[in-house]
């Protein structure tokens, strides 16, 4: 099986015996209240999803990642992983700090190395390619604050999230892949419920691999993407009703979307490498938003990384429904002209549902559409199918 990024799977979970001690002594330590998003990433670091990261980035890591797309030790890394604060935190700049959730429960330990100020606009320009607040990922990054705490983390206690049972750790997925005898494992990233173009890509993955790892993002997303639980239910429905048993593994990824286009495509590939995937599908405008990125920049970036990241990238161009072929296809498989092609987008599907219309079944499966319609609290209305 492909080794985790950086060679070893990071594991930083406080051992049970030590947990008791640190909780008893908690009043000796300074603490910081952090939101769910930070705690999700603590867990991603501690369970190896973000291997080789052992903690939140310091200023040197951040600049190296922003400018050179690698960590100071040389491993490719493209997205900042930061513990951002709105105010300068009143903590020593070295030593142990506890992280607590918004209810005051202690969740993690940080061995602080540095407290520093982030040049938010400069970092946004380098990572997102824009400083514009019209970009939802950039706006979200600015909103988290210009102060950062860098240092290695230890996970004390997992947070309670509504889709916990859907989350597997890299050690679990790697064991499952081994148990199932999968050698070629194709990773599929998504932030939305599956429509027919997604399904086309998943079937490509099923054709080329021993198994398909569907790994929807369950963290923060812009408000017009669908709710995480709906997405999981839609995928459960698709995999149970249509795909062969035992050839798909569905598991949620609890981290936020960054909408950083090409750089996030690399981040997503590294994460799936850590889960044990050998291949990763990158479609048109992967992790993009609006018109901020060239649709194929997310393909090209893999040719320009400081070094090969090891996982094989399956580059797929735009997928559409062709009314002459009468199926989903791409430029590589359909020779008909543009006017015969229907491009499927979640934005289009969502707009139809909002207006009380049912999207055509060649765009999204009716039972998946039903789920999405229910999530909007609308009754199903048939129109001109
Ligand atoms: Zn065609």
Model description:
There is one protein chain. The chain is of the alpha/beta class. The protein has two domains: 16-155, Sulfate adenylyltransferase (Roll); 164-375, HUPs (Rossmann fold). It has twelve helices and 14 strands. Strands 1, 2, 3, 4, 5 and 6 form a six-stranded mixed β-sheet that branches. The chain has a five-stranded parallel β-sheet with strand order 9-8-7-10-11, sandwiched between helices. α8 (228-242) links the parallel β8 (211-216) and β9 (248-250). α8 packs antiparallel against α12 (366-375). It is globular and about 70 Å long. It starts with 15 loop residues before the first helix and ends in a 10-residue tail after the last helix. The model is unreliable at 378-385 (pLDDT under 50). The structure holds zinc ion (ZN). Zinc ion binds next to loops.
The CATH topology of the largest domain is what?
A: Rossmann fold
Helix and strand run: HEHEHEEEHHEHEHEHEHEHEEEEHH
How many domains make up the coordinates?
2
How many helix segments?
Answer: 12
CATH class call of the largest domain: Alpha Beta
- What's the total count of β strands? 14
Binned strand content: 15-25%
- According to CATH, the homologous superfamily of the largest domain is HUPs
Helix content class: 25-40%
- Poorly predicted parts: 378-385
First and last CA, distance: 47 Å
Classification by helices and strands: alpha/beta
Radius of gyration over alpha carbons?
A: 21 Å
Shape: globular
Sheet with most strands: 6 strands, mixed
Tell me, rounded to a whole number, the average pLDDT.
94
CATH architecture of the largest domain: 3-Layer(aba) Sandwich
- List each distinct ligand once: zinc ion
């Amino acid at each position: 099986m492909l080794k985790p990024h950086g060679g070893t799977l990071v594991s930083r979970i406080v051992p049970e015996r030590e947990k008791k001690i640190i909780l008893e002594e908690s009043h000796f330590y300074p603490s910081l209240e952090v939101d769910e998003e930070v705690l999700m990433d603590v867990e991603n670091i501690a369970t190896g999803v973000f291997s080789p990261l052992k903690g939140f980035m310091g200023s040197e890591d951040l600049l190296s990642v922003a400018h050179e797309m690698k960590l100071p030790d040389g491993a490719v890394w493209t997205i900042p992983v930061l513990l951002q604060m709105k105010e300068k935190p009143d903590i020593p700049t070295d030593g142990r700090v506890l992280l607590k959730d918004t209810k005051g429960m202690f969740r993690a330990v940080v061995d602080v190395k540095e407290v520093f100020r982030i040049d938010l606009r400069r970092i946004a320009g380098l990572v997102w390619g824009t400083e514009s607040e019209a970009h939802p990922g950039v706006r979200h990054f600015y909103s988290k604050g210009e102060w950062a705490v860098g240092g290695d983390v230890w996970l004390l206690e997992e947070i309670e999230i509504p889709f916990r049972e859907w989350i597997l750790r890299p050690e679990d997925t790697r064991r499952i892949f081994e148990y199932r005898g999968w050698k070629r494992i194709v990773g599929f990233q998504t932030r939305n419920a599956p429509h027919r173009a997604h399904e086309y890509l998943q079937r490509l993955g099923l054709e080329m691999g021993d198994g398909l790892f569907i790994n929807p993002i369950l963290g923060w997303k812009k408000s017009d993407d669908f709710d995480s639980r709906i997405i999981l239910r839609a995928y459960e429905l698709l995999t149970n009703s249509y795909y062969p048993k035992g050839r798909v593994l569905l598991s949620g990824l609890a981290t936020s979307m960054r909408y950083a286009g090409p750089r996030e495509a690399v981040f997503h590939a590294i994460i799936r490498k850590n889960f044990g995937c050998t291949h990763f599908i990158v479609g048109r405008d992967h992790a993009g938003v609006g018109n901020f990125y060239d649709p194929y920049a997310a393909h090209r970036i893999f040719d320009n990384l400081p070094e090969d990241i090891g996982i094989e990238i399956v580059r797929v161009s735009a997928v559409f429904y062709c009314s002459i072929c009468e199926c989903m296809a791409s430029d590589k498989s359909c020779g008909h002209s543009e006017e015969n092609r229907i491009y499927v987008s979640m934005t289009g599907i969502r707009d139809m549902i909002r207006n009380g219309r049912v999207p055509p079944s060649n765009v999204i499966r009716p039972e998946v559409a039903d789920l999405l319609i229910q999530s909007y609290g609308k009754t199903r209305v048939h129109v001109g199918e």
